[in-house]
C-alpha cells in the first residue's frame, strides 16, 4: 500500500513569481534563480525564504503546466472508465514529450529533471499520483482488493517508464503502448472485463 503523504501547499496560480518562472521555463527550458529574482523584482534571499530552492520552483512550474493539460484532457475522457484514465494519463505525458522546453530541460539538465519529476519527495510525482487516484475514485469507484493511491502509483510509474524510455534505452517515448498497458492494468478482476465508468446513481 502506498501512503498519501501531505506535501507543501501549491503556489497560487495567480502568484506573480510563478507566472514569471513559468514564462522563463517555457522560453529557456530552465529557471535561472538570479534572473528570476531580477525579472520578478524580488531579492534572492526573499525568493528562497518564500518559495524554496530551484527544485521546488521547477516542480511547481512543471506541475502547473501538467495540471492545466490534465484538466483539458480529462474533460474529453470523462465518463469513459479505464479507457478514459489511460488516455488522460498518456496524453498528458505525450504533451510533455513533445514540448520543446521540456525536451530541452530533460536533455540538458537530466539529473535535475529526473530528481524534480520522479522523486517521491518532490511535488510533481506526489500530485500526479493524487490526481490519478482521484480519477480512479471518480471513474471506477472503490476497488475490492487495492486502494486507489497504490493503483495510481503503479499507473504513474508505468507511464514514466515509457515517457523516459529515450533516456533509458535511446528509443523514443511510446505513449500509445503505455495507454494500452494502463488500460489493461485497470481490468476489473471480478468479471475479467475492462473496468468501465460507474453507473450514475
Tell me what you see in this structure.
With 201 residues, the protein is mostly helical. It has one domain (54-194): Tetracycline Repressor, domain 2 (Orthogonal Bundle). Helices cover 69% and strands 2% of the residues. The protein has eleven helices and two strands. It has helices at 16-28, 33-39, 44-51, 54-77, 81-98, 100-108, 110-118, 123-140, 148-163, 165-169, 175-185, and strands at 187-188, 193-194. The protein has a two-stranded antiparallel sheet with strand order 1-2. Strand 1 and strand 2 form a beta hairpin. Helix 5 (81-98) runs parallel beside helix 9 and helix 5 runs antiparallel to helix 11. The longest helix is centred in the first third of the chain and has 24 residues, at 54-77. It is globular, with a radius of gyration of 18 Å. 34% of the residues are buried.
